[in-house]
## 1
Amino acid sequence: MQLSNCLTDLEGIFVGHATDTKLGSGVTAIVFAAPAVASVAVLGGAPGGRDLDLLAPEMTAPAINAVVLSGGSTFGLDAAGGVQAALREDGRATRVGPMLVPLAPQAILFDLLNGGDKDWGRFAPYRDLGYAAARAAAPGPFALGSVGAGTGASTATLKGGLGSASARTASGHLVAAIAAVNALGTATVGETRHFWAAPFEVGDEFGGFGLPARFGPEATALRLKGRPAAQPGTTIGLVATDAVLDKAQAKRLAIAGHDGLARAVWPAHLALDGDTIFAAATGRRPLGDARQELAELCHAAAGVFARAVARGVFNATALPHPGAQEAWRDRFG
């Protein structure tokens, strides 16, 4: 099967965006055709999320219906309610007696200081954006860059965005990632066009420039968003596979996704980052040698998440507001 290098290469996963450039924010909904076994790993010091505890391996919920990625900081937590409404209308839910209860865990990123119009009145718009994102969820390739949860994202040096990537393991399993990159640190080396994720690039998916010929002190100097007073960051996303996994194995996959984040953003997992990565298994292809093939899945998870981060920044465009942060394409063409 020809891969399109995005999360929806996995059969049974649909992705939809709701984008509001005036607001400078948005929502991305990842909807599963059938409930997916899932877990999560939170390694940032300032996370925001909804229904994350139910994803712990020891918790009862066996599977979920969707994952929600949103801007808006804690205001954005309303987005999951909108996604739930759409899922309930479609019957994608857990039945509890006569009630349908969709499970749609969520992570948020901080994009409140990007120049967008946040004067939304009494109620924030994220519930409606969540509903629109879920209604837009579809199979096949989807837009990258300044869309959905990546609309208002930023990094220390360049506009952030939403990226995705996929790969196949030696055993034939598919692994794919989606990332909304709003990092406190930077995805590029110093002030250059080169991405930290360059060793993992496939083809020229984010320019094909490789790494710089040399690394001087300026390459690894600390660059933080909002300095001298650092503002909150966060990279959020999902790693998914077609393998049959239990929740403990899915947790391993989520942790491996953070390995990729740490290779793609310098520095990552800071006190003001809320770095949160979900993992989900659609269960369409059993494991053979479980120990060997889980290692392959984790290896692939780190790679695809690193690539998704770089693709998010590479494809981003500046917001249409005065003083908006410059995008990679603005600076390097």
## 2
Amino acid sequence: MARTLEFYFDYGSPYSYLADTQVEAIAKRSGTALERKPMLLGGVFKATGNHSPAELPAKSRWTAFDMPMWAKHYGVPFNRNPHFPVNTLVLMRGAAAAQIDGVFEKYHPAMFKAMWVDGRNLNDIKEVAAVLTAAGLDARKFGQRIQDLDVKDRLKATSDEAVARGVFGAPTMFVDGMMFFGNDRLPFVELALKGELK
């Protein structure tokens, strides 16, 4: 049976960004499909009683060292966003809309780059519009779509699904129903995709 790598993420999660730079290559090497699943991490935290690492001073200090280390390991650009934390409701609704409307391949990399490479203030809808326009997307349509019921329902359904499956943070990945939390679990994800994790 063909395996699928399910990837739950939120643009506000730097570890989601780091993992996202690797999952396509992992899926390709494993000969498996990749399914990205945008969820609202704030809603997941609320439902599970979890908190952002940024709220814990000791953990925040640790991640300030850890995240650039991972970026260097992967050979990818990374910068802490000076406007963090960002309320990602608009961004994640946008991801849901982009999937429904068939423009996710343009939308997705633009948002992660704006957040964790360029340090854009994505709390500001004008900044979001500028990022969309630069990516060749219709910012005006985006503003309308994120208010549509099908978009709101899709994001809520995916977030609820994540909680029901035991997700408590991002990134979280599933292979054959087996859950893997965190960027640092990617080697085990790849073994699972190849059927080599015993």
## 3
Amino acid sequence: MTLQQLKYVIEVANRGSINEAAKRLFISQPSLSNAIKDLEEEMNISIFERTNKGISLSKEGAEFLSYARQVVEQAELLESRYLNAKPSPQHFSVSTQHYAFAVNAFVSLVQEYGQDEYELALRETKTYEIIEDVKSMRSEIGILYLNEFNGKVINKLLKSANLQFTSLFTAKPHIFVSIKNPLAKQSIVKIEDLQPYPNLSFDQGEYNSFHFSEEILSTLIHKKSIRVNDRATLFNLLIGLNGYTISTGVLSSDLNGNEIIPVPLDVNESINVGWISHKNVALSKLGTSYVEALKQAIGQ
């Protein structure tokens, strides 16, 4: 086993493709494939699963990747300390539902740990894709919520993917509305108060199940309903159409301004927001730091 082989594995996992990784590494695709096959034979494991749809990490491969990253990181620290070598670009990815605090934490992470070069990714995406991203190690961390309604389905998916959920906070449901919306003047809003206004929600694409919805009470029928793909569009519609969306009540004025406010929703529900990661796989330095940044962002 060589340090170069470990770097090859990391690059393939990051790109999700032997071909793309070979281009980045400036070697031929057969040479990269052979190097990884030699490592798998030496370690007596299958690091990657190869199908007609492409390549993905196996269960054993996800654990191996965690150790490989630690070894390469330590080797780079040694080189930087004793050979005065230039540190390699940092890598870290997170997939999340559309939460402003997740973006705030990412900003803090980059400000504190960003070197001259880094390759980071923040994916605000669909619930099912968050689980798939972490399962395949495309992202080290995923952020989503559980509650009594979706918990059984989501936890079953996490268990089958060998992932674990760690709670960050539990919140009571709120609606987000424009400060010009009449509901903004109320101290608490009832379900029946929402009927005249457009309900805004995030589209879940192919997996548009009630259980994958980012908004609780997803089975409610709305006279006016609009689905969107990104947070900026949703917030623009909150203001432009006097719409509303249901969320945690955690909002960032730094990112979203003061035109949108949370108002408590009068329902007997709770939202448990947390992060998911691979079981028995230690977080990287940036992964650990991002979790701490999440906690600080929520506290703020």
